[in-house]
Design goal:
The protein is of the alpha/beta class. The protein has one domain: Rossmann fold (3-Layer(aba) Sandwich). The protein has 8 helices and 8 strands. The protein has helices spanning 27-30, 59-68, 87-91, 107-125, 142-153, 170-179, 201-220, 240-255, and strands spanning 3-9, 16-22, 36-39, 76-80, 135-140, 160-164, 188-194, 228-233. It has an 8-stranded mixed beta sheet with strand order 1-2-4-3-5-6-7-8, sandwiched between helices. Helix 6 (170-179) links the parallel strand 6 (160-164) and strand 7 (188-194). Helix 2 runs parallel beside helix 8 and helix 4 (107-125) crosses helix 5 (142-153). It is globular and about 50 Å long.
Amino acid sequence: MPFHTHHISSLYLGVDRRITVWLPPGWRARRRRYPVLYLNDGQNLFDPARAFAGQTWHVRETAAWLIRHKRIPPLVIVGIDHGGARRGREYLPVEDDRNPGARHPLGREYVEFVTHEVLPFMLREYPVDAGPSNTGFGGSSYGAVAALHAAIVRPGVFGRLLLESPSLYVGGEHLLRRARSVRRWPFRAYLGVGTAETSRADRNEETVDNVRKLGAILRRAGLGTRRLRVVVEPGGTHSEGAWARRLPQALEFLYGV
C-alpha cells in the first residue's frame, strides 16, 4: 500500500512539517472520496526506522486488515510529525509543570496549522471527503491533548476523536475544565488508557481517573454507548506497543457501522 510524504511550510508554526499519507488498498481503482483520520506523532505510526524505540502503532497493517475484512470502510490516514524539541510546546495549550521543555505553549498555533494548513492541503491533493463526519483526529499522550484541544476550540471540524493515554493533568486539568462547557462534540469518541502508564501508582491512578472524568463529561453532553467508548486496559503502559494493541478496537469503533 502506498505512502506519500510531503513537507508543509506552516505560517502558524513558522517551520516546515512533514506529513505521511497512507492510502487504502485499491484507492486509485475505486474513483471515490474517502474519510480521513489525522494522527499526531507521525514518526511513530508507520516506520520502525523513525519510531520511538523502533516501535510503531502498526497503523498500516491494522487499517489494511480491518478494511480487507470489511470491519471499517476504506479510509486515508495522515501522520503529522511532531516538532522534536518543540513537541510539548506545540501540543499543549497550557504549560506542564512536570516538563520544563513545555514552556511558552503553542497549542493554539498548532490547531490553526492542522485546521487551516494540513486539512486544506489534503482536500486539494487527495480524494478525501470534507465535513466532520469524514474527518477524524487523534493522538497519544501530549498528542491526544492536542487532538482534544482542537475538538474543543474548533467544534464542528472533527467528527471522530481518538485519544490514547491523554495527559489530562496539565494545567491543573485545564482541558477537563474547558470540556465541561463544550456544547458540540464529535460524533464518536474513543478514549484509551492503561493502568500502568507510569512507574508511580499515584500517577497511574490520576491518569485513569482523568480519562474517566472526561468520559463522564462526554456522557453528560449526550454521547451514549454508540458514540463513546472508554477502554481501561489492565497493565497497559504508556507506549506505542499499548496504543498499537488497542488500535483495532479504536478504529472499528470510530469508523465501523
